[in-house]
Amino acid sequence: MMQSLGRKYVRYINHTYQRTGTLWEGRYKSTLVDTQTYFLTVSRYIEMNPVRAHMVKSPDEYPWSSFKGNGLGKNIELLTPHIVYLALGKTKAQRMSRYYSLFEQDISSEELRDIRECTNKAWVLGSDKFKAQIKGASNRRVESSGWGGDRRSGDRSRSLTP
């Protein structure tokens, strides 16, 4: 009964909103982030996603962005300032100004790649020390081992041949 109800609901949503596919396409992805080193970079990454997707021209135009609270001082009830954000300045005006100024420069292509790769592959985003702490606590791989993919390319193929 629940499966039938679920299928009917998905058909209804797809028809109503002119969409196709499953209701929740793609799997949930996340990564552990070294707060001290990467919090502000990841915040910029998230708040610039609608701009990179050409949905808006600036992050303050996106209705679901925390940029309005952090960078423009708009009161957002559901937004709790992070300790790293609070450390940007002693006053609200200082924090807003410093946060806003972070958006004057683009996130480097290396940082974008690192954030995306760590998120998509469930690796840890952070310093070597942070990665070692997480690895020790969780006993799981926290970054690429350098193996995999096309095993006949690059230096690896030379090391495997007699």
Quick structural summary:
GO terms for molecular function: DNA binding; transposase activity. 51% of the residues lie in helices and 0% in strands.
Terminal Cα span: 61 Å
How many strands appear in the DSSP assignment? 0
| Outline | globular
The DSSP helix count reads: 8
- Major beta sheet summary: none
Structural class: mainly alpha
The ordered H/E elements are HHHHHHHH
* Fraction in beta strands: under 5%
Low-confidence stretches: 156-162
What's the average pLDDT?
87
Provide the gyration radius in Å: 21 Å
Write a concise keyword list for the protein shown above.
single chain; 162 residues; mainly alpha; 51% helix; globular; disordered C terminus
Describe it for me?
The chain contains eight helices and no strands. By secondary structure, the chain is an all-alpha fold. It has a domain at 35-138. The longest helix has 18 residues, at 35-52. The protein is globular. The relative contact order is 0.11. Residues 156-162 have low confidence and may be disordered. InterPro entries: Transposase_17_sf. Residues 149-162 have a biased composition (Basic and acidic residues). One of its GO terms (biological process) is DNA transposition. One of its GO terms (molecular function) is transposase activity.
